[in-house]
Amino acid sequence: MHVKTKKIAISGICLALAMMLILAGSLIDVSSLSFMLLASFVLGIVVNACGLKMSAVYFVASVALGFFILPVKLHVLTYGLMEAYILIRELLWEKVISKKNIKKITYLLIKLGIFNLLFIPPVVLISDFLFTPADTGFMRVCLILLAEVAFVIADMAYDVFVRYILSRLKFLKN
Fold first, then answer.
1. Taking the model in full, what pTM does it have?
2. In the 8-state DSSP scheme, what is residue 51?
3. CA-closest candidate to residue 32, choices 63, 86, 84, 76
4. Nearest CA to 22 among 57, 65, 60?
5. Residue among 47, 32, 116 at smallest CA distance from 86
6. What residue spans of the chain are helical by DSSP H?
7. What are 123-159's pLDDT values in tens digits?
8. Domains of the chain
9. Cα 17 to Cα 166: distance, rounded to the nearest angstrom
């Protein structure tokens, strides 16, 4: 199979898998965040199998398709932010981190910074609708701290997921 055709086929299959996961999350409300997170992990497979250019196309296609498929548009925003984090993370890894001798703790702090840039603005905007004015400040801080812990766990899970998938499916590697 031609290399470009193979990349398009892998991206299409991954896109279909991600959309099935997102739809499953919209049908099973209790675990919608888990399914969206798992669906955004699929972008890591596309990055490693097809490169960053194809991953950017995949990102735009998955968010656009999610907008048309999902009944709850807030889920599309959440999924898009999760995928944006993974795309920025992989871009940083490929262009900056892997070429320089940067310690793991520095890389973790960079990833936390990216996460905070993507996460805190929606929390600040949405928390006014979720909490009473007296509780807003305290609840925002609690929500952000809880999200930081969840982020570190999800980021480690992402690393394990991509490593596992790529070790099992050898044909995905460039």
1. 0.83
2. -
3. 76
4. 65
5. 47
6. 3-27, 32-50, 52-69, 73-95, 104-130, 136-168
7. 777 766 666 666 667 777 787 888 889 888 999 999 8
8. 3-172 (1.10.1760)
9. 16
